[in-house]
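Database export, one record per block. Field names are fixed; values are copied verbatim from the stored entry.
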Amino acid sequence: MRAPTSAIGEPDHQLPPLTGPFPVNQEHGLPSPLQLARDEFEAAGSRFATDAIRDARLRQLYKSNIQRISREVQAEVDAGRVSVVEGARFCQRMRNQVMEETRVASSAQGRAYAQKVKPTGTALESLLDKYASELFKRPFSSLSESQKSQVFYSIVASSGRDNLEFSTETRRLRILGKVGLIVTAIVALHAVVIADDKPREIIRQGAVIGGGMVGGGVAGALLVTPICGPGAVVCAVAIVLLGSTLGGLAAELVERTAEEELEEFARWNLR
């Protein structure tokens, strides 16, 4: 039998026979618009639901802290160990400090909403005029010493008073956050149930939700303040939404790429 020849007509004795499976005509499916929409919902929904629950918990902690400070200072003032003026100054300063620390720990959108409702802590001078007007219908500077003491004591007593409307809204968001987590879990579970490759779908769902959590958190921490500024609730929500969506899609892309590489590697049947 005649030996195979190369392209230039010489016998080709250097090419070994090539054997093994060679994948051809493979189909690479693209995610459907419905799947993309579902993934975006899961990525953004999980981030916002978690943030709502955390913000509600922080608000409750803020409320309990300012109430504790108010009770303790009132007890010290009533016992005569602290003057009413010192107590009022301490309560005003501590309430503003606790407020700022709570906002730092809050989500980007929660912090923006709080800044919109109350941009900064209230100065002591403003509180003096406010309670002087409420109690005596006169400015603080025109009050007698006895009346001024009553104003200072009112500041101590009211420093533990919470904004009822704000706390009610926060509790509502906590409930919505829990519902959002349940809905997200149901959507992810349904995707796993109807999937042909259930183990891979479980991994993909974890990647989408985890990527959305990370992406939204990074966007909220790094982009909301320089882009939106304080008190811009709509802008903060949009930035976190975008970060969550991109994070979820990026995580899914990484998972999909790695899965395809593993499948291709397995086809080689390397020994």
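Remark 1: Residues 33-78 form the longest helix (46 residues).
Remark 2: Residues 6-13, 22-28 have pLDDT under 50 and may be disordered.
End of record.
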